[in-house]
Amino acid sequence: MPRFGLFGTGHWAAETHAAAIAAHPRAELAGVWGRDPAKAAALAGRYGVRAFEDVDALIDAVDVVSVALPPDVQADIAVRAATAGRHLLLDKPIALDERAADRIVHAAERSGVASVVFFTNRFRPAVAGFVAAAAAAGDWHGARATMFASIFQPGSPYGGSTWRRERGGLWDVGPHALSIILPVLGPVVRVAALDGPRGAVHLLLGHAEGAASTLSLTLDAPPAARALDFTFYGENGFEQVPAAEGTSVEAFTLALDQLLEEIDAGTRDHRCDVRFGREVVRILAAAETARAQARTVELPA
C-alpha cells in the first residue's frame, strides 16, 4: 500500500487531504510536516501518525507526497520529492512563476514519477463529464466565466491566507477556470488583463484556434455579489458548466484513485499532471505581465 506524506497543516490539509488519504482503502497516511511544528504535531496526533520535523526525512519515509501549502513553498518540496523518486499529488497553482513550475516538470520527467494536480472541479464527475463532452463536440467560439468569491469574511477558514491576499483571485480561482477552459478551447496564445474594484481582475484570452474567453475573478467580492457562472458558446448555442456537486473529500478521493491508477499502470499522461499545471502557471504569469504593463501579452503556440 503506498505511503503518503502530507505537507501542510491548514484547513485544506486537515479537512480534505488528510481526511481523504486516511479513509482511502489503498493509501496509508504515514506522516505530516508543517511550517509550524505544534500544528504538525496536532494534526499528526489527530490521525495517529508521526509528525516530522524535517522535509527530506518525510520524503524519504513515503512513496507519495501530498502537498497543501502556499504555491511557492509547494514548488520547492515538489522538486525535492520528485528528484527523490516520489510521486506527486499537488494543489493548484503548482508554483507562482514559470521558472519554478519548469523545475517541477523537469524533476518529475527525469525521475519518471506520476503526478496529479488537484484542480478540484476536474475531479467532480458532473463537471469532468461536461468538459470531456464539450471538448469532443467542438465548434465553440468562446467561454465566459465569473468567479466571485468572498473568502475574507469573518469565519472563513482561508481568511488568514497570506498568499491569497497577495495574489488574489487570479492565482487562486483563476486556475480552476483555466482547468475547464483549456481542455475545451485549446491553448492560449494571447492574454490581456484589467483590474477592477475589490481585487478583481478581468482577463481576455485568445486561443490558438481562434476562440476567445473572458474571465472575471476575485476573492474579495461583496457577500451579496458572490457568483459562480461558467458558460461556453458556439455553433450549437450556449452550454453552462453544471454546478459542482459533492464534497472536496469526495473529489480528492477521485484524484487519489486516478494517481494510484497511474502508479500501477506506469503511465505518465494524466490530463491534470504537472505539465498541465505548468501551462496554467504560464498563462497566469502572462496575465500578471499584462496587468503590470497595460498591454496584450503574446504566448508561443
Radius of gyration: 19 Å
CATH fold topology of the largest domain: Rossmann fold
The CATH architecture designation of the largest domain is: 3-Layer(aba) Sandwich
The profile of the biggest β sheet is: 7 strands, mixed
Please, could you describe this protein's structure?
With 301 residues, this protein is α/β, with parallel strands linked by helices. The mean pLDDT is 97. Strand 8 (188-195) and strand 9 form a beta hairpin. Helix 1 packs across helix 9 (248-265). It has helices at residues 11-23, 37-47, 55-61, 71-83, 98-111, 125-137, 162-172, 174-185, 248-265, 274-293; strands spanning 3-7, 28-33, 50-52, 64-67, 87-91, 115-118, 140-148, 188-195, 201-207, 212-218, 227-234, 237-240, 297-298.
Summarize the structure.
The chain is built from 10 helices and 13 strands.
Name its key features.
single chain, 301 residues, alpha/beta, Rossmann fold, Dihydrodipicolinate Reductase, domain 2, 2 domains, 7-stranded mixed β-sheet, 6-stranded parallel β-sheet, 10 helices, globular
Lay out the secondary structure.
Blueprint: E1 3-7, H1 11-23, E2 28-33, H2 37-47, E3 50-52, H3 55-61, E4 64-67, H4 71-83, E5 87-91, H5 98-111, E6 115-118, H6 125-137, E7 140-148, H7 162-172, H8 174-185, E8 188-195, E9 201-207, E10 212-218, E11 227-234, E12 237-240, H9 248-265, H10 274-293, E13 297-298
Parallel strand pairs: 1-2, 1-4, 2-3, 4-5, 5-6, 7-10
Antiparallel strand pairs: 7-11, 8-9, 8-13, 9-10, 11-12
Helix pairs in contact: 1-9, 4-5, 5-10, 6-8
